């Protein structure tokens, strides 16, 4: 195998384990907040999307289907962390709003994720992180293009 082929193979081989390790650590952190991992991710992403996000937008941000999100949203509502309100422009749709308790928990979860990233990437030069971000963006864009052609 040439050096380039070996490098490409090693890159591809590392993607899944690194992603899985990151998600396992993040899930453990979110689980420590005494809510389910799915609820934790929903709170974090809803906070990032802003007030009144549509349920479909939240599902896409998390990377799941709308149907998969329904139970989590119901749980968040029951726990007093989220309110679902009818969309004024489309009564069939709902917009999600964090309650004050939900906002506080989302901030706490996000802070823990910030700390996790800082610890995992401690000592790695910014230039290396920047290069990795550019690389992942390029690969994600090409993969999306290739899926569109399939």
Automatic annotation (TrEMBL):
- Report whether Transcription regulation shows up as a keyword of the record: yes
One GO term in the molecular function aspect is:
DNA-binding transcription factor activity
Instruction: Fetch the Pfam families from UniProt.
Output: MarR_2 (PF12802)
Q: Where is the HTH marR-type domain?
A: 1-141
Q: The organism sits in which domain of life?
A: Bacteria
Segments forming a coiled coil: none
Any keyword Transcription regulation?
Answer: yes
Q: Which UniProt keywords apply?
A: DNA-binding, Transcription, Transcription regulation
State the protein's name: MarR family transcriptional regulator
Native species: Novosphingobium silvae
What is the organism lineage in this UniProt record? Bacteria, Pseudomonadati, Pseudomonadota, Alphaproteobacteria, Sphingomonadales
């Amino acid at each position: 195998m040439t050096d380039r082929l070996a490098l490409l193979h090693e890159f591809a081989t590392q993607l899944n384990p690194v992603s899985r390790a990151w998600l396992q650590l993040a899930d453990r952190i979110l689980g420590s907040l005494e809510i389910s991992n799915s609820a934790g991710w929903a709170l974090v992403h809803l906070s990032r999307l802003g007030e009144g996000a549509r349920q479909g937008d939240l599902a896409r941000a998390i990377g799941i289907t709308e149907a998969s999100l329904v139970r989590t949203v119901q749980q968040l509502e029951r726990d007093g962390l989220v309110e679902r309100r009818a969309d004024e422009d489309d009564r069939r749709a709902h917009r999600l709003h964090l309650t004050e308790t939900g906002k506080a928990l989302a901030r706490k979860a996000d802070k823990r994720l910030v700390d996790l990233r800082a610890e995992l990437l401690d000592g790695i030069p910014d230039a290396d992180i920047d290069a990795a971000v550019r690389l992942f963006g390029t690969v994600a864009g090409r993969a999306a293009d290739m899926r569109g052609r399939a």
